[in-house]
Amino acid sequence: MAEAPKRKAEANKPEATTRKRNSAKTKASILAAARVEFADRGFEGARVDAIAERAEANKRLLYHYFGNKEDLYRAVLLDAYQEIRQGERALSLDQYDPVQAMDRLVRFTFRHFLANPWFPRLLGTENIENARFLKTLPDIKALHSPLVGQIAAIIERGAASGIFRRDVDPVQLYISVAALGFFYVSNTATLSVIFERDLSSVGMVQEREAHAVQMVLDFLRTKPGL
Question: Average pLDDT, whole number, for the chain?
Fold first, then answer.
C-alpha cells in the first residue's frame, strides 16, 4: 500500500518542475519587457498593459510576481545593477597585474554600456526621479561595496609596485571610468551631428574605448605636482 503514495509523489514531480520552470521563464520575460518599457518611456510614461503585452504574459501574473508598477520598476533597477556587478565579478581582476586589471575594468564598463543602451536610459530615468526608488533598495550598497574594494586593491597593488600613484579615491575613479562610457553611449546621436562623425561606427567605438583606457591609466600613473 505504501507504493501508491510514492508513485503518486513521483508522478507529480515533473509537473511541479514544469510549473517552476514556466514561472521563472514568465518572470524573466516580464522583467525584460519592463526593462525596455521603463528605459524607453520613463517611470511615469511606462504602462503595465504595454509591459504585459510585450512579455506575452497575463497582467494578473505580472501583479502576482512583482506587485504593483513601483515594485516592478524596483525589480528592474535591482536586476540592472546586479547584471553589471556580476559581469565585473567575472573579470577576476585580482588575478591580473594592476595595469591589466584596470584595462579590463575600463573596457568591460565601456562595452557594457555599449551593448546595453537601455541601461544609460534607465539610469537617466532614475536620476529624473531623484533616485527615489534606488534609495529604497536595501541591497544596493552591498552590491557596490565589493567593487570599490576591488578598485582600492588594484590601486594599492599598483602603488606598491611603483606603477600607480596612491592618492586616488576608488569611488572617484570608478565614477570617471563609468562616465567615459556612459556619456559616449548616451550622447552618441547628438555628438555625431555636432562633430560630423559617426560615433556609432566600429572604428570610432574602438578609438573611444582605447582613449578611455589610456586616460585612466595615464591618470593613475601621473605623480601629484608634475
Answer: 90
Burial-class residue 218 by CB neighbours within 10 Å (0-12, 13-18, 19+).
exposed
Q: Can you give the pTM of this predicted structure? A: 0.85
Residue type, 90: A
pLDDT of residue 215: 97
Superfamily of 75-226 according to CATH = Tetracycline Repressor, domain 2 (1.10.357.10)
Residues forming CATH 1.10.357.10 domain(s) in the chain:
75-226
11-67 folds as Arc Repressor Mutant, subunit A (1.10.10)
